[in-house]
Amino acid sequence: MSNGETGDRPGVTIGRAAALYGLAPSTLRWWESQQVLPEPPRANGRRVYTEAELRRIGLAYLCCVVGAMPLEQASAVTSGRGNRDWRRAVERHVGLIEEEVRRLRGAHGYLLHLLHCPDDDIVEQCPDLDGELMSRTPRGLAAGQSLVAAARSAPQGAPPPRRRDGTGRRRDENTSDPDRCAVCARAFAQPGRGRRRKYCSRACQQRRYRQNASRRPA
């Protein structure tokens, strides 16, 4: 690109800046609106991304896409507001990831255990299923030898306290796990208004768009 496209400043337009990291220009605008990126200087009314701005976009990509950080926490890293702010934000997110890793390891371990079941029909044939339900689900908190008797005695209303192994979760048709991003699987809160979201960030939305586009026949 010649400097003529961006005035006298040596830089690139928002389209080129976004393409460098496989993003859409709308993602950079969204990051600006969420204070993950400062608005860059302009020439002839157009954004101009110099080496420093492109480095900052790269850092935002590392935080938001590679590190799966929420935008609010990522902004503490990319804004350059001093070491304490950004280090605390990273430490908080590392703690969340470690908790999620422990949960996924538990899920992984159980599914590997499940694969060793020799029975074709687990519900009808597996002699260990009742023990698994007692130890790994809230069924163990309800009295009763049979499942029908246990269901009749199970308390209704507020769920029991949640335990680390997940046995404190209530799972029925009226409850669900937290919403998770369709791309990176990170948990996120739905907005109070508007349409329900499928992705935790614009970056993940763009990643799914690119994945779908790559699968389309030429």
CATH C-level class of the domain at 5-78 = Mainly Alpha
User: How large is the share of residues in beta strands?
Assistant: under 5%
Straight-line distance between termini: 29 Å
If you compute it from the alpha carbons, what radius of gyration comes out, rounded to the nearest whole angstrom? Answer: 24 Å
CATH topology name of the domain at 5-78, in short, is: Multidrug-efflux Transporter Regulator, Chain: A, Domain 2
Low-confidence stretches: 163-177
Fold blueprint:
Layout lengths: L4 E4 L5 H7 L4 H9 L8 E2 L2 E2 L3 H16 L4 H8 L4 H33 L6 H4 L3 H8 L10 H7 L48 H14 L3
Walkthrough of the structure:
- The protein has nine helices and three strands; from the N terminus they run E-H-H-E-E-H-H-H-H-H-H-H.
- The protein is mainly α.
- Among the domains are: 5-78, Multidrug-efflux Transporter Regulator, Chain: A, Domain 2 (Orthogonal Bundle); 130-176, no CATH class.
- It has a two-stranded antiparallel ribbon with strand order 2-3.
- The radius of gyration is 24 Å and the shape is elongated.
